[in-house]
Write a structure and sequence with these properties.
Strand content: under 5%
Number of strands: 0
Structural class: mainly alpha
Largest sheet: none
Length: about 170
């Protein structure tokens, strides 16, 4: 072999000895930091669900139920006009039920599959909102904000103390 690449002899190795480049090898990226140094960007931001995808999935659920009814009625040999009338009635009923407020309370987060990313994100936002309301946490709450306010009070108190001492010395 040339350039000390590969086996010195293919004998006993179970291979032909032909050397190929490793196409699965990933070259390392440049040595930049893998994360931002900006602390504001490190805060957790909850992923927002895509409303269009959620609406599409809801409409799809309606159409699946309508199609199941149509299939069942066709198997029973019902007339085509009657099938269309029943399917339209079911579709209208399901769409009205879908548009009613409070319909999401029936869908438990546990019933969602891992591939339903937008539904999971929507359920998580609603769960977080319920928890925030139950614990009476304000919408503009910032994690660690209490400590920041306490530090500001301490700093202001320290700034006031030397000023009061100077005023006291000037009077005396």
């Amino acid at each position: 072999m040339s350039d000390n690449v590969g086996l010195s002899t293919p004998r006993g190795s179970g291979t032909s000895g032909y050397v190929q480049r490793n196409l699965a090898h990933m070259r390392p990226r440049d040595r930049a930091a893998p994360y931002s140094r900006d602390l504001d960007q490190l805060k957790h931001r909850q992923r927002l669900p895509d409303k269009g995808i959620l609406e599409h999935d809801r409409k799809r659920e309606v159409e699946v139920k309508v199609f199941e009814l149509r299939d069942q009625l066709e198997d029973e040999g019902v007339e085509e006009d009657e099938i269309d009338r029943r399917c339209d009635a079911l579709r209208k009923e399901l769409q009205e039920k879908m548009n009613r407020p409070g319909r999401d309370s029936t869908t438990a987060k546990r019933s969602l599959k891992s591939h339903q990313v937008h539904e999971l994100a929507d359920a998580k936002i609603k769960e977080s909102e319920r928890l925030r309301n139950a614990l009476k946490i304000s919408k503009n709450y910032e994690e660690g904000g209490h400590w920041k306010r306490q530090e500001e009070r301490m700093r202001k108190a320290l700034e006031r103390d030397p000023a009061e001492e100077r005023d006291g010395k000037n009077r005396g």
